[in-house]
Each structure stands twice: as structure tokens, then as C-alpha cells.
Amino acid sequence: MKKTTVSAFAKRKASGEKLVMCTAYDAPFAAAVLDAGIDIMLIGDSVGTTLLGYSSTLPVTMEDMIRHTQAVRRGAPEAFLVGDMPFMSYQSSIEEGIRNAGRLIKEGGADAVKLEGGAEYAELTSKLVRSGIPVMGHLGLMPQSVNTMGGYKVQGRSEEAVAKLISDAKALESAGAFCIVLECIPESAAKAVTESLTVPTIGIGCGRYCSGQVQVLHDLLGLLDFRPKHAGRYAEIGQIVREALRSYCEEVKAGTFPKDENIFNK
Ligand code: KIV
Predict the structure, then answer these.
(1) CA of residue 46 to ligand 1 center, whole Å
(2) 160 CA distance to ligand 1 centroid (A)?
(3) Per-residue model confidence (pLDDT) at position 95
(4) How far is CA 46 from CA 110, 114, 182, 248, 258, in A?
(5) pLDDT score of 113
(6) What is the pLDDT of residue 205?
(7) How far is Cα 206 from Cα 203, in angstroms, rounded to an integer?
(8) Active site residue ranges
(9) Which residue puts its alpha carbon closest to atom 3 of ligand 1?
(10) What burial class does residue 40 get, using C-beta atoms within 10 Å of its C-beta: 0-12 exposed, 13-18 middle, 19+ buried?
């Protein structure tokens, strides 16, 4: 499969061919995501809630992000990887943002970084791009701002909010962002933002008119009980895992495991 590049993104939007992105956090699933022909893998800070057992993304550290990005890179050497900048890795200063983004590229093996926020991060975005680090923006519902947003709520419902989304998206585009994730905004708002930009938008919970879609791997595969409204569900792996483990437990207790084929003879 041909690796997606930053320069191919705007062309994909212009051609109308949808971009496909999903999260990955470890080597075996990264290999499966690559095999499926998915264009972009996001090592999301959603690793905090999907794998690490946190109730939000706020506790996720740079070390967590680097370790999971490295694992994904080992599983999918040819994939286009976007590493998420975790909470407080770029908010305190531009210097810290550049240093941490550099770590995701140099130590993690990411091709690009994603950061949440609008015009207030245009300067950081521009400095990252000038330093050779491609930036994916993230607007709408920004999980790292859960405490200031007052919960995980759909954003962009008013005319003023849509105007702000468009001006933030344009500020990021002018600063050099190659793509912008939109999360949980009404379909009409996502369409308006997408039409206002040259760079593509990738939506989650934003309806049909973004330039592409992103989903969390664990939602797609049914690995967790939690089922967000916007999530596509293509398998019920969590159920399969529980049934398999129950069978193993029963067989050990009944003395029917190990079987002949599991036993070494002299
Ligand atoms: O962390 C993540 O998985 C994300 C996606 C929901 C876009 O930011």
C-alpha cells in the first residue's frame, strides 16, 4: 500500500476521495489497520481511556504517547502516523510545544502531530511547521478542555459558535496545518467549516460532509462497553473475548485443558 503524505492531503480533498483515519495504540492492531488500507493512523491520547483505564485523556503523559507511538510504528513501518500531543505538553509555552512535538517525531516515529485548539495555537503551529513538523489541528469538542467546556458536549450549535469554528480553522490553515480534525459538531456546521478551507477536515461525530472520517479503534471493534452515538460498530470483539476467556476458565476447572495437542511428549 502507498503511504499517504502531507502533500497528498489537499489533493485528496480536491478529488473528493474521502480520507480514512482511525486510532491505533499497539503493534498488532497497527498491522491490521494498515492491512485494511486505512490512510492515516492516529495514536490518540484516547489511549488514556481505551487502554490505560483513565476516565479522561487528561492524565496521559508524553512518555505514554511516545511508548504507544513507537509500538504502532513497529507494527506498521509504512503507515502515515499522527501522534497526539497530550494535555499540558504544549499549553504552557511554544518552546515546550516544539520540544515535545519533536520527541513524538524523533523518539516515537510519528510523521506528524495533532494538537487541540484554535487561533491561540496558530503561532505554535506555524513554528512547528517551519521546524519541519507537520501539524493536524483539532476543533469542536476538545476532550482536553472537558473541564472548561463543562463536559463532553456537542459544540458549534449557534451561529456565533460556527463563525468561531470557521475563523479558528482558517487561522490554523494559514499557520500551515495540513488537515483539521472536527469532533462532535452538527453536520451543517462541519460542512460550513469544510467548505471554508482548502485543507481537508476529518470528522468524528460531524456527519457526512467532512473530507474524511476518523473513529476510535475500540469503538469500531466493540472492544469496550461504552458506545458513543457517533461511533461506527463493525464487530463485537469484547463479547468474543469474554466468551473465549469463560471457555478457557471452564475447561481448566473441568480438566479438559490442556488437550493432547497442547502437551509435549518425550
Ligand atoms: O485521541 C483521539 O483518539 C482523538 C480522536 C477522537 C480524533 O483525538
Answers:
(1) 6
(2) 25
(3) 98
(4) 16, 12, 15, 30, 38
(5) 98
(6) 98
(7) 5
(8) 183
(9) 44
(10) buried
Q: Which residues line ligand 1 (CB under 6 A)?
A: 23, 42, 44-46, 84, 181, 183, 204, 214, 216
pLDDT at 179 over 80: yes
**Residue-level pLDDT at 227:** 86
Residue type, 65: M
Contacts of 228 (CB under 8 A, 6+ apart): 205, 219
Segment 72-99, tens digit of pLDDT: 999 999 999 999 999 999 999 999 999 9
- Indicate whether 214 pLDDT > 70: yes
What local confidence, expressed as pLDDT, does residue 1 receive?
Answer: 58
Which residue is listed with cell 480534525?
A: 181
The CA 158 to ligand 1 mean position distance, Å, reads 24
Average pLDDT over every residue of 230-259: 97
**Three cell numbers at 186?**
452538527
Instruction: Report which of 47, 180, 25 is spatially closest to residue 110, judged by C-alpha positions.
Output: 25
This prediction has a pTM of 0.96
Distance of alpha carbon 216 from alpha carbon 202, whole angstroms = 13
User: Nine-digit cell at 63?
Assistant: 512518555
Report phi then psi at 85, rounded to 5: -85, 120
